[in-house]
Write a structure and sequence with these properties.
The complex is a heterodimer.
Chain A (H helix, E strand, L loop, with lengths): L4 E3 L2 E4 L5 E6 L6 E7 L6 E7 L2 E5 L6 E5 L5 E5 L8 E8 L8 E2 L3 E5 L1
Parallel strand pairs in A: 2-11
Antiparallel strand pairs in A: 1-3, 3-8, 4-5, 4-9, 5-6, 7-8, 9-10, 9-11
Chain B lengths: L3 E2 L5 E4 L4 E3 L2 E2 L6 E8 L6 E7 L7 E2 L2 E6 L4 E6 L8 E9 L8 E2 L3 E6 L1
Parallel strand pairs in B: 2-12
Antiparallel strand pairs in B: 1-4, 3-9, 5-6, 5-10, 7-8, 8-9, 10-11, 10-12
The chains are: A mainly beta, B mainly beta.
Chain lengths: 113, 116
Amino acid sequence: DAGVTQSPTHLIKTRGQQVTLRCSPKSGHDTVSWYQQALGQGPQFIFQYYEEEERQRGNFPDRFSGHQFPNYSSELNVNALLLGDSALYLCASSLGGRFSPLHFGNGTRLTVT
Amino acid sequence: AQKITQTQPGMFVQEKEAVTLDCTYDTSDPSYGLFWYKQPSSGEMIFLIYQGSYDQQNATEGRYSLNFQKARKSANLVISASQLGDSAMYFCAMRESTGANSKLTFGKGITLSVRP
């Protein structure tokens, strides 16, 4: 049973560029969330997708956008990259349920130079 | 106000001993869920244990148990018989009942080092 998979594992971009990160949820899961984790900090919620719609959004600018596909996989897009966007980006999936645990992928390490 | 507070500095424990990692939380919602995750240096966030606010008993999962004190708003993780592989960052997190599939709010984490 495949868990949450993310690609790529590492990425280096230049300020001002755009980046797309990808996530495949755990088999059977229909909800995908994205988190940003700066070095030495806890993950911060970016947004959540369910039924191909953004359901909740954290305190992130519009430069951060996403998409969920009919097969429940998801993409995170970040435009006009800033140095401060350098972080570990974690994708998590869950199966409905108000308090069902989130299952995380290994993350994508984004470095903006 | 911080929703999840983890204030312990880096923790050290001798192999095979037990260790308690502290977590306090703040919410006005009567229905919520508390979670602990482990993050090794590889980066993956591994789910350890869950405690619901209405659960009558403290949650246990193998060597992990949660010391849930609702009145004090604390949800401490107890790891028994520590192993070298337990060395990692540990995060306490909460989901409130506001809205379906509400977000997970994390604390800043605690670093645990297990000494041989």
